[in-house]
């Protein structure tokens, strides 16, 4: 197993204390004590929401649910439990796998990371990260990246590929995993996630949208011996308008699974929070797939089942490899003694099996042909078992296809030009160059020498943690620049050498900023950027300053996980050009030189704001580092994260959200505003739910979970079987969680289909406009549409502009034009009415304005359209 796993295991061992005091491990009937925690601040609540709404009521899933019902109605209790429960850490080829129901052709479901390609394998592509895909603002490219990731997952026999990520959304600029998602805005995240999901799932692989929800910081996300994981405390409106928004888009796109996060939400653990799983996700958003736990995020067997968890991963209890579990045999017991209603188990299984049918995995879907645990060809089949049969574990199947092309395109079209004085860029092919910084070169320890990319050495292609993929190769900037200009000196070092610069020499300085997942600490940064802050790593700022003192022309290239501070050098007269190349994956070098040497114009735009300093952010989005008690992370800035905050606080940042220059210029003209579906204050009534599968309600015979005769069990592998099934039955009263009830809740008025009331996606206005390349070089433009809503009419405070739609042109030659169409939905113009519990819009769009520009800043706006008045130049 990967080297980074040791600290992870140690962390898990620490869980023992809390878990044993608070869970349903040994006897589901007895363990009802809740986890001790600091009290929730009084203004936040988690209302109970029981029972779990059954899946299968959305017409897009009818056929799959009908097939699932046939299968599930014939399953034994053991088979049902098998499908819902992981078989244990290191108990198969994938990072997690369930048991099987082979009588019905259902294999052990293989779940594997992650959002930018297949983790821990070979002959795969290391795609650009989510933040890079977001920076392209190109829906087609994002879709194509999703298809390619899906093809690779299928090729490796992965049933469930765990991406994309929309949580963290990027509330905290220092947060470790913001690079896995697409940028600090709900619409950007939502549109990009929907494209990625549709792309991935077009190949038959089940996508997992994660982490549900409010997992905005890495430190203290998990429960340890000294404290339980932090609670993200949030108000209902902010939750709906910012954090739930991209999940709604993912559900609408038909995502097959959603991962419940580690953290608590308003004082209740995400995996057993009935309000967010049963209420928001399964009722209001009409999610028809299955909810899987994050790894070791489950802390109660009955409580998580009742709250809406459908699959437990990796299946172990609080401590891996002890052979115990919250589900598996415990779930069998809980069904036999009635503490988990059979209907709930049937729904869990039906959701999983229906998703498997929905994606067509019953038809010739490959089995895993790789191992996440080892690079060897043969080895133990169940490395977590003390005695395991051995066999072929890696078949080294090459799944790369021609995906290097899409990887390079995404990386190239994400490159964001922030400064370009005197048209310093593009460079001529024979320019005399001096290149500085280790970020231009290879990892000095060797490609993939740091497990899960847990180091910052050489070109930064991605952050670290489970959201990584091994590099099959990397084209370094050094190699790629050399291919374009033989006249280059390389100083692949982070200390500035003693050099003499000729007057026309150009320096290119490479700097980076890394972050990742909490189980690896890199250079004293435990996932989140604690020590590094938002500055460049390895003295990068100093390197730029020193280069700027020697050279009259300095180009800075930045590889970064997110916002980075530039104040030490950005205004120096010799810093002529700055490019953010985000996290480019394996095609780092070629994608960069495509732009540096002018074969392509840069067309990326910032998917977040770059501030002058961290004091410009609200204090509440700083990291919280608190060793005792449960952290109560209060989202007091409410909807004002990233650019929403800068607009509201009237702070001009260093570079605004959406910003990005080109080698050419664009003019937006001939804009028209067309009215579509008429906009009422609230959406029309939601459609009723269709019936969901029904099953026999009698508790199955205990014999269904008896060990099969002659069964050869593997020690510590997790099974659904009980030594004495008859002893499990009981009729003693069970203390269910407070608020638990069995009669269904009234259907939420904001629901009605996948994502919510389908009327929320009615197009109510469309802006069409012409984009013309007015410069002398070919290039691509992004038209970003921001809405200005009348807060007074809606009775809420609002930022003056919010991104809701965008489109990118194809490559336009000088003088060429293209017409772009930007549809705006009812939801795009709505705010969440916390009293009515529905989306409220200004009737007929009165006083709504649409700003279309090349960033969120007013000075980058080109067109403004006002409802009832039409469009004009901004
Ligand atoms: C924990 C991470 O938070 C999650 O994103 C990942 O999918 C699982 N580990 C499995 O590796």
Please indicate the percent range of residues in DSSP E strands (runs of 2 or more): 15-25%
**CATH architectural type of the largest domain:** Alpha-Beta Barrel
Helical proportion? 10-25%
Spatial shape: globular
Arithmetic mean of pLDDT: 94
Present as ligands are: 1-deoxynojirimycin
Structural class: alpha/beta
Return Rg in Å: 27 Å
- Number of domains in the coordinates? 3
- The total count of helices amounts to 19
Poorly predicted runs: 1-36
Query: Main sheet, how many strands, which sense, barrel?
Result: 6 strands, mixed
Quick summary:
With 874 residues, the chain is of the alpha/beta class. The protein contains 19 helices and 28 strands.
Explain what this protein looks like in three dimensions.
This protein is 22% helix and 16% strand. By secondary structure, it is of the alpha/beta class. It folds into three domains: 55-216 and 225-361 and 368-398 and 695-727, Glycoside hydrolase, family 3, N-terminal domain (TIM Barrel, Alpha-Beta Barrel); 415-663, Rossmann fold (3-Layer(aba) Sandwich); 667-685 and 755-873, Immunoglobulin-like (Sandwich). A six-stranded mixed sheet has the order 1-2-3-4-6-9. A six-stranded mixed sheet has the order 12-17-16-15-13-14, sandwiched between helices. It has a five-stranded antiparallel sheet with strand order 22-21-26-27-28. The protein starts with a helix and ends with a strand. The structure holds 1-deoxynojirimycin.
